[in-house]
Specification:
2 domains, 210 residues, six-stranded mixed β-sheet
Length: 210
């Protein structure tokens, strides 16, 4: 699919599933850049990144960017720390920087956090603020579309597997999301509950019953 896209000058972002040698090579050959999250499916890559940030060599200086958001009772702090120290060490196609993204959020007096790691072909002249914006933008897409489809609209739990039915249902879920967001809904789960209670689904289509 990537072969059909104009990747020159573009940045491809993805979760750990897409952190693959062949894919990174393909993106670089097409003139693009990548920023992928790293997990245990690439154990050597993950181990090298963990060692760099957990036990940095003497004198190593990291580039850091911090972002803070507040939405109602939720307060979130994101900090991205980047380094080009592994560029010549890692046997990974196109790697120019690695990064650690730490998130901590507090909601209703309960605090939680997570730490994730990234690899990118963007050069060391790319600021950590830019890397943080790209990482956040990727998860914005995940949270607004894929998570809502998978969990809220039940795509993961669907037992429909045969023929064109899965594609048809996926298209219908996208239509539902488009209609709800066009109506001003920001919380899809709450909007679905409201529609079920008030039986107002036809209004989204501009229809009414006498």
């Amino acid at each position: 699919m990537l072969a059909a896209l104009p990747l020159a000058g573009a940045v491809v972002t993805g979760d750990a599933l897409y952190c693959q040698r062949a894919l990174c090579t393909q993106i670089g050959a097409a003139g693009g850049d990548y920023l992928f999250f790293v997990k245990g499916n690439q154990p050597r890559l993950e181990e090298a990144i963990l060692l760099l940030f957990d036990a940095p060599p003497p004198g190593e200086r990291f580039a850091t960017a911090t972002q803070t958001d507040r939405h109602g009772s939720r307060h979130e702090v994101r900090q991205l720390t980047a380094s080009a120290a592994l560029t010549d060490y890692l046997d990974w196609p196109g790697c120019q920087q690695v990064a650690r993204l730490a998130r901590r959020w507090t909601e209703q007096d309960a605090s939680r956090g997570e730490v994730r790691h990234l690899v990118t072909s963007l050069s060391a002249t790319t600021t950590p603020e830019t890397l943080l914006a790209l990482a956040r933008g990727h998860w914005g897409i995940e949270n607004r579309l894929h998570y809502v489809r998978d969990v809220t609209l039940g795509e993961d739990a669907s037992r429909v597997r045969s023929g064109a039915a899965p594609q048809v249902l996926a298209a219908l879920r996208n239509v539902v999301l488009t209609l709800l967001r066009a109506s001003g809904a920001t919380n899809i789960a709450a909007a679905l509950r409201d529609i079920a209670w008030r039986r107002s689904a036809l209004a989204l289509l501009g229809l009414s019953t006498a």
